[in-house]
Amino acid sequence: MNFKSILTTILVVALALGLGVGAGYLVRNSGLLGNGGGGGGAVVTQGDYSSVYANAGGEVVMYSLSTCPFCKQARAVLEKQNVKFVERIIDQDKDAKVEADGLKIKSVPTLYIGDQSLQGYDEAKLVELINAHGKAAKPAA
Length: 141
Known about the structure:
It is built from five helices and five strands; from the N terminus they run αβαβαβαββα. It is an alpha+beta fold and 141 residues long. A five-stranded mixed beta sheet has the order 1-5-4-2-3, sandwiched between helices. Strand 4 (110-113) and strand 5 (116-119) form a beta hairpin. Helix 3 (69-80) runs parallel beside helix 5. The N and C termini lie far apart (70 Å).
């Protein structure tokens, strides 16, 4: 290897590392993934969400991104608990994006259950809300 190819390799590796670190920083600080989904950043808010349910056509509504791993985990919890829910995927549905903007959703997943919303992912908080509002359906016999 000559000096030029070694220097080129070093520059490519440095650029890749820089892009990876930069992308990680943007994802963590954009707020879009609910504070990393670790649970500590998930926030429950009390309110009247009747218009959310009327627009979405369901009693439990989740706003998500198709690429969000925490949205996938929340979906799995809802399905495991036999919860009937409407999912609004904001990066695939223009109407869902407009709704999310109107609701000032800043992180995903954002779930609306009864008179509470959960922004970010925390499995324990999600199960608690499901149980508190009696949204888990009995499995078919």
